[in-house]
Amino acid sequence: MKIIVTSIFVQDQDKALKFYTETLGFIKKHDIPVGEFRWIALTSPDDQDGTELLLEPNNHPAAKEYQDKISSEGIPATMFGVEDVREEYNRLTKHGVTFTMEPTAMGDMTIAVFDDTCGNLIQIVQK
């Protein structure tokens, strides 16, 4: 068994698609209409056949409450691996991304946390 799709709740699918592709650099794999929303799945440019990230609309009250609570508590919604956290921090900062935690060493890894502009905090990690 392996993880093939994971999801993240977003406030606005169009805004999220733009941020996750244009700013973060993910590749759009699927964009399929499903009722009033869309099945938008992204992949890493380094592993286009790997795990997909689904940009899930937070229109359900439970999803919105979950997203609001973890964000207000400073808890990242998910974690992305990067080769060099400081380099990624500098690149994203130049693109206007707001970080809530600058690159910080934590044992054998370095982490940073940013706001995805769609209701989530995202952690990046370099092992």
Distance between the termini: 24 Å
CATH class: Alpha Beta
DSSP summary, beta strand count: 8
| Mean pLDDT over the full residue set | 97
The fold-level CATH name is 2,3-Dihydroxybiphenyl 1,2-Dioxygenase, domain 1
CATH superfamily: 2,3-Dihydroxybiphenyl 1,2-Dioxygenase, domain 1
Q: Secondary-structure element order, as H and E? A: EHEEEHEHEEE
Please write out the topology.
Blueprint lengths: L4 E6 L2 H11 L3 E8 L2 E7 L8 E6 L3 H12 L5 E4 L3 H10 L4 E8 L2 E7 L5 E6 L1
Parallel strand pairs: 1-4, 5-8
Antiparallel strand pairs: 2-3, 3-4, 6-7, 7-8
Pfam family, one: Glyoxalase
InterPro entries: Glyas_Bleomycin-R_OHBP_Dase, Glyas_Fos-R_dOase_dom, VOC_core
Protein name: Glyoxalase
Task: Give an account of the 3D structure.
By secondary structure, the chain is α/β, with parallel strands linked by helices. The chain has one domain: 2,3-Dihydroxybiphenyl 1,2-Dioxygenase, domain 1, CATH 3.10.180.10. The chain contains three helices and eight strands, in the order E-H-E-E-E-H-E-H-E-E-E. It has helices spanning about 15-25, 60-70, 85-95; strands at about 5-10, 25-35, 35-45, 50-55, 80, 100-105, 110-115, 120-125. Strands 1-4-3-2 form a four-stranded mixed beta sheet. A four-stranded mixed beta sheet has the order 5-8-7-6. The mean pLDDT is about 95. InterPro entries: Glyas_Bleomycin-R_OHBP_Dase, Glyas_Fos-R_dOase_dom, VOC_core. It holds the Pfam family Glyoxalase. This is Glyoxalase.
